[in-house]
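It is worth pausing here to work through a concrete case rather than discussing structure prediction in the abstract. The textbook approach is simple: state the sequence, then state the predicted structure, then interpret. We follow exactly that order.
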Amino acid sequence: MNYKQIRPGRNVGANERKTMATLSDRLPQNLPGPFYVDSTCIDCDQCRAAAPDFFQRDAEIGMSVVFRQPVTPEEVSEAQAALEGCPTDSIGNNGTL
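Step two, the predicted structure:
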């Protein structure tokens, strides 16, 4: 997948960058809560390495998903670090805990 692709048929311009996952593209395999992975995930393993307590690979879809939502401020920081490190901006946080 092209890292600059927002969704099929709509590419980000040269000076633009997708900054977070799209809630409407949220994968249904995510546990309900503020953090989620959307359908642009390329299964690079970055989030699972950065925050293994919250992200895991779903073998059926071949992408990462949130299997546990963070609760404490420290956990939220860990999940947020995974969000910020995602090379495809496929992790979202809708801000509601």
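Step three, interpretation. The longest strand covers residues 55-58. The beta strands are 5-7, 10-11, 35-37, 55-58, 63-66, 91-93.
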